[in-house]
Write a structure and sequence with these properties.
Radius of gyration: 32 Å
Low-confidence stretches: 1-91, 157-171, 226-232, 239-315, 361-447, 496-571
InterPro entries: CRC, Lin-54_fam, Tesmin/TSO1-like_CXC
Mean pLDDT: 54
Keywords: Nucleus
Structural class: mainly alpha
Pfam families: TCR
Shape: elongated
Largest sheet: 2 strands, antiparallel
Strand content: under 5%
Strand order of the largest sheet: 1-2
Number of strands: 8
Distance between the termini: 92 Å
Main location: nucleus
Order of helices and strands: EEEEHHEHEHHHHHHHHHHHHEE
Subcellular location: Nucleus
DNA sequence: GAGTTTGAAACT
DNA sequence: CAGTTTCAAACTC
C-alpha cells in the first residue's frame, strides 16, 4: 500500500484560496465560491470547494453523497459532516485518512474535489504542495472511473415527492447512479450511500434487505419521529436488522433469500422493472404499512436484472406517457375543430336562412330552440362516440391534415385554448389566427357576442364531456390493471411458497413466469396482462374511436377551409 | 475514545 | 467480472 511519505499534516500549511483543481480535462470540478462562514463554524476555515460539473443541486450536491438534511444521527460526530441547510454548507467535512494520503476516493475530501484543510488526516497529499501527486492520483482515478468525480446522485424523472415525506421535511428525489450494495444496514444507516444522500434506493441498487423504499415503515418512522423517537426507532431498526439477519445470513426472508449465483426467486430476471412499480410489488419486509402485499422484501438485485423500483408508482404510470397525453390533447383539439366546425356551419346556415328571409323577421326564438336542439343532438352523438369500439389511432397532426384547425376560423373558447396549452407550438398560434379569422377580419366572420358565448359554452360542453368519458375509460383501465396485478402478485407469492417448500424447486419457474408476464405472454394461470402498448392503444383508441366516429357521423366536411355538408345533408 | 461494523474503493 | 483486501466513515460501547 501507499504509505506515509513523511506525514505532512497540512492543515496549517495550506492556503485555502479558491483554486481550480485539475481533475483531468473538461470533466474537472468547478470552483464555487467559498461559502460565507456561519456562526456555528466561525472557528473553521471552509475549504475551497470544488465540485464536478455540472454544478450540483443543493440536495444532491456533494460527492460523496450529501448528508441527509434529516435525520442527523444524534451520535454523529459533529466535525465530520457537511451540514447543508438551505443549500448552504455550514461545515466542511474533515477527513481522517491515514493510509490513502487523501489521494483516493476513500478520502471524502479528495472525492469531493476539494483540498484537505483542517482535516485530521495523516500524510495528506491532497493539497497544493503535492499538486503533482494529486494530479496523478486524479488521473488514475479518472482512468478507473471517468465518472469518479461526478455526482453520484442523479436527479430522477421518477423521483417521487411524497406528501408524507415532504411533511417530514424529506425530499426524495434522484437516485444513486451506481446504486448501493448494502447487505446488513437495511439501507437505513449512513453506511448506505442512498440513505446518506437522503434518497430512496432505486433499481440501480443491489442491496439486501432494503428498507429504504417508499412505504417502508422503518424508513417512515425514521423521518417522522422526534429525535428521541428516531433514536428509539433506529434501535428498533437495528433490532429488526439483527433479528432478520440472524444466523442464516442476510436479512432476506427465507422464502425470498437469494442464493448465490442464483436468481432471486421473485422476479429477479424480470426484464421490465416496471412490473414492480405497482405498489403490490414493492418491498414490504416486516411491513404492515401502506403496501398491501407481503411480497418481495429484498431489493437484492441481479446483475442481469435491476432490482425493483421501490418508490410508489401510479397504476397508470408507464401506461400513460407524456406523448399519450399529447395525443389525447391533440384529439381534443380535433374535437374542438370539429365541434367548432359544426357550430359555425350551423351559424352560417342560420345566417343564410336569415338573409333569405331578409327583412321579414328578427331572429326568432324558434331558431334559438332549433339551435339548442341541434347542439343537444350533436352532444349526444359525440357522447356516443366515446364508447365506440374502434381501434383507429389519431395522430397528433391529424387535425391539420383534416383542415379542421382553428385557422379555419372556428371560434375557440379560452377554456379550449387552455386545454390546448400543450399544443402551443402548433396549435395555439393557429387558433389565435383562427379566432381572428382569415385575413384577421374578425368582425366579418365572428358571430355576435351572444352567439359566441353560446358557441363557446356549447363547444366546451361537448369537448369536456368527451374528455370526461376518456378519463373514465382510463380509470376503468387502471382498475383492470390493478385487479390483474393483485391476482398476479397473489399467485406469484403462492408460487414462491410452493417452490421453496419443495427442496427441488428453483427460481426458474418464477423467472419464466415473469418473463412471460413481462413479455405480455399469457401466464399459465393468469389472464394475459395488458401491456402498456395495449393500454395506451386502448385509451387512445377511446379518443381515436370517438374522433373517427365523430368524423363519420358529423355531417360536415372541411374542404378548402370551408365547411360543407356531407352528402348534401340538410342541416 | 477505543473498538467494531459497514460498505465503497481498490486490487487481484 | 467476481472475489478479496483496504480503507475510512459510521456506529457501538
Amino acid at each position: 500500500m501507499e504509505q506515509s511519505e513523511g506525514g505532512s499534516k497540512k492543515a496549517e500549511s495550506e492556503p485555502t484560496s479558491k483554486r481550480q483543481l485539475d481533475f483531468g480535462g473538461s470533466s474537472g470540478p468547478v470552483v464555487i465560491p467559498e461559502q460565507s462562514k456561519t456562526s456555528s463554524v466561525a472557528s473553521q476555515q471552509l475549504k475551497p470547494v470544488l465540485v464536478p460539473p455540472p454544478l450540483l443541486m443543493p440536495a444532491q450536491a456533494s460527492h460523496p453523497p450529501v448528508r441527509p438534511l434529516k435525520p442527523e444521527s444524534p451520535r454523529a460526530r459533529p466535525r465530520q459532516t457537511t451540514e447543508v441547510k438551505d443549500g448552504t454548507p455550514k461545515k466542511q467535512k474533515q477527513c481522517n485518512c491515514k493510509h490513502s494520503r487523501c489521494l483516493k476516493l476513500y478520502c471524502e475530501c479528495f472525492a469531493s474535489g476539494i483540498y484537505c484543510d483542517g482535516c485530521n488526516c495523516v500524510n495528506c497529499h491532497n493539497n497544493v504542495e503535492n499538486e503533482d501527486a494529486r494530479r496523478e492520483a486524479v488521473e488514475a482515478t479518472l482512468e478507473r472511473n471517468p465518472n469518479a468525480f461526478r455526482p453520484k446522485i442523479a436527479s430522477s424523472p421518477h423521483g417521487t415527492r411524497d406528501n408524507r415525506e415532504e411533511a417530514g421535511e424529506v425530499l426524495i428525489l434522484g437516485k444513486h447512479n451506481k446504486g448501493c450494495h448494502c447487505k446488513k444496514s437495511g439501507c437505513l444507516k449512513k453506511y448506505c450511500e442512498c440513505f446518506q444522500a437522503n434518497i430512496l434506493c432505486s433499481e440501480n441498487c443491489r442491496c439486501m434487505d432494503c428498507k429504504n423504499f417508499e412505504g417502508s415503515e422503518e424508513r417512515q418512522a425514521l423521518f417522522h419521529g422526534d429525535h428521541a423517537h428516531i433514536t428509539y426507532l433506529q434501535q428498533a431498526a437495528n433490532a429488526a436488522i439483527t433479528g432478520a439477519i440472524g444466523s442464516s445470513g442476510y436479512g432476506v426472508p427465507p422464502l425470498l433469500k437469494k442464493r448465490k449465483g442464483q436468481e432471486l426467486v421473485f422476479g429477479s430476471t424480470a426484464k421490465d422493472p416496471s412490473i414492480y412499480r405497482h405498489p403490490q410489488f414493492q418491498q414490504t419486509n416486516n411491513i404492515r404499512g401502506p403496501a398491501p402485499s407481503s411480497l418481495s422484501s429484498s431489493c437484492v438485485g441481479n446483475s442481469a436484472a435491476p432490482a425493483p423500483t421501490k418508490s410508489y408508482r401510479s397504476l397508470l404510470e408507464g401506461i400513460i406517457q407524456p406523448e399519450d397525453l399529447k395525443q389525447l390533447c391533440s384529439v381534443l383539439v380535433v374535437y374542438t375543430g370539429e365541434t367548432g366546425k359544426i357550430i359555425e356551419d350551423r351559424n352560417a346556415a342560420e345566417k343564410q336562412a336569415e338573409d333569405q328571409r331578409e327583412s321579414s323577421l328578427t331572429l326568432s326564438t324558434r331558431d334559438r330552440c332549433r339551435s339548442q336542439k341541434e347542439s343537444d343532438a350533436e352532444r349526444s352523438v359525440i357522447d356516443d362516440c366515446s364508447s365506440a369500439n374502434q381501434t383507429e389511432k389519431v395522430m397528433p397532426d391529424e387535425s391539420s391534415s383534416d383542415g379542421v384547425d382553428a385557422s379555419n376560423g372556428r371560434p375557440m373558447s379560452p377554456g379550449t385554448l387552455a386545454l390546448m396549452c400543450d399544443e402551443q407550438d402548433t396549435m395555439f398560434a393557429a387558433s389565435e389566427s383562427g379566432t381572428m379569422g382569415h385575413g384577421g377580419n374578425t368582425s366579418s366572420q365572428l358571430p355576435q357576442d351572444q352567439c359566441m358565448t353560446e358557441t363557446y359554452a356549447e363547444q366546451e360542453r361537448i369537448i369536456l364531456t368527451n374528455f370526461r368519458d376518456c378519463l373514465n375509460k382510463l380509470i376503468t383501465l387502471g382498475q383492470i390493471k390493478e385487479r390483474k396485478c393483485s391476482a398476479m402478485a397473489q399467485i406469484e407469492s403462492e408460487d414462491q411458497i410452493a417452490a421453496f417448500s419443495n427442496s427441488n424447486a428453483n427460481a426458474r419457474m418464477d423467472t419464466r413466469n415473469h418473463q412471460e408476464l413481462n413479455n405480455g405472454a399469457p401466464h399459465s394461470q393468469l389472464p394475459p396482462v395488458m401491456t402498456r402498448t395495449q393500454m395506451v392503444s386502448s385509451a387512445v383508441s377511446v379518443s381515436a374511436a370517438s374522433h373517427s366516429d365523430l368524423q363519420s357521423r358529423i355531417p360536415f366536411t372541411a374542404e378548402n377551409g370551408n365547411l360543407k355538408p356531407k352528402n348534401d345533408k340538410p342541416l
